[in-house]
Specification:
It is a single chain. This protein is of the alpha+beta class and about 190 residues long. The chain is built from 6 helices and 5 strands; from the N terminus they run αβαβααβαβαβ. Strands 1, 2, 3, 4 and 5 form a 5-stranded antiparallel sheet that branches. The longest helix has 22 residues. The protein binds flavin mononucleotide (FMN). The site of flavin mononucleotide has 8 residues, from β4.
């Protein structure tokens, strides 16, 4: 696939199966992620790979964090929701967590550091697509949970930008994206300017 074909071929797959990216392919995916545009080369992105036993163990972290959120909110944990937190990482054989770590900078505000980490996440998805793997970018409540961040070695001020589910397509790759540009182009001068 050429680069433009990869861009349109990247589609989300909710259920991915083994095989996960090989170690060599994973290395390529991570290098692609780290090649993201990055103002002042602050390298504000970090990557955590979860697979096999660590993927399973992190499910317990998510379940415990769900319980703690319920306690903090004064609500009773719901067994089905707890179980979903416990098992949801199993929707792919490998999950790559992309985080943004705050770097001190007078020139590069936090939102630009977040943007660099998001670009890294997208690069990882595109590299996975180019290598023939499926992917899905997810977030959700655990992304904003200080206990989950701490478990990943992040500070509360850092951000979990993406949980990238990576693996092989069960029933073939989804059809390529065919985006509609209606309403996306802002004329300028605009009516209000
Ligand atoms: C920052 C971000 C967070 C997302 N979080 C979720 C999520 O938690 N659950 C979900 O179903 N889709 C989530 N998505 C959307 C999917 O990744 C996907 O882009 C969307 O379903 C459109 O499908 P496509 O990628 O095949 O075009 C998120 C996307 C982004 C950019």
């Amino acid at each position: 696939m050429d680069a433009l074909e990869v861009l349109f071929a990247r589609r989300s797959s909710g259920r991915l199966v083994a095989p996960a990216p090989t170690p060599a392919d994973l290395q390529t995916i991570l290098r692609a992620a780290a090649a993201a545009p990055d103002h002042e080369r602050l390298r504000p992105f970090r990557f955590t790979m979860l697979s096999g036993a660590t993927l399973d163990a992190f499910g317990q972290v998510l379940a415990d964090a769900y319980d703690a959120r319920c306690v903090a909110a004064g609500t009773e944990p719901v067994a089905a929701k707890r179980n979903k937190e416990r098992t949801k990482l199993g929707r792919a054989p490998l999950v790559l967590v992309v985080s943004a770590v705050r770097r001190p900078s007078a020139k590069v505000p936090w939102n630009e550091q977040l943007a660099a980490a998001a670009a890294a996440a997208q690069n990882a998805c595109l590299a996975a697509t180019a290598l023939g793997y499926g992917s899905m970018w997810r977030t959700g409540d655990p992304s904003y949970d200080p206990n989950v961040k701490a478990s990943l070695g992040l500070d509360e001020a850092d951000a979990i930008v993406a949980w990238l589910y990576l693996g092989s397509h069960r029933d073939g790759a989804p059809p390529p994206n065919d985006p509609d540009l209606d309403g996306l182009l802002l004329p300028w001068p605009s009516r209000s300017s």
